[in-house]
Amino acid sequence: MLNRKTEQLLTNCITENKQNIYRLAYSYVKNKEDALDIVQDSIYKAMTSIEYLKDESVVRSWFFRIVVNTSLDFLRKHKKIYPMDQEKLELYAHGAVDEYMDIDLVRTLDDLPPKYRDVIILRYFEDMKIEEVAEVLHDNVNTVKTRLYQALKLLRVKLKDRRSSND
After folding, report:
1. Least reliable range by pLDDT among 17-21, 44-48, 91-95
2. What is d(CA 137, CA 120) in angstroms, rounded to the nearest whole number?
3. With contact defined as beta carbons under 8 Å apart, do 122 and 133 qualify?
4. pLDDT tens string 58-104
5. Of 11, 25, 60, 86, which is the most buried if we count CB atoms within 10 A?
6. Helices 141-166 and 130-137, interaxial angle, to 10°?
């Protein structure tokens, strides 16, 4: 039987974190519609498997893990090149207003292996604590710390290389 308290906790988690959930999905697929589909699929998966959640105190990390897995499943099923969305196209269009974007950082993050990119996204873009990142990724805290250190080191090197090649 479904525990109403657990269901309410999940509903509150989704409501309170809706922007973070969408941003996390978008960080994987780089497409608004696909990210929304992933969020919807993740909510469905969470609601239909909520009885398997043993510890209510980890509902947030449990749900974020579902979003990560759903995003990865989506990418595996839809191996394709994603077209640029309209906002990005307008940035590059002739006569468009020049806006600053750290394109080097975005490209460099995309080039990182998933185990490093996931840690960076969850820690810095989703503002999760190391312990929360470890819960979401089902890794121990020391592994997350090591990957975070290695990821930051890789980012520094790659960004430095990109910027020096652009000069």
Report:
1. 91-95
2. 12
3. yes
4. 888 899 989 999 988 898 887 654 455 555 545 444 444 444 445 66
5. 25
6. 100
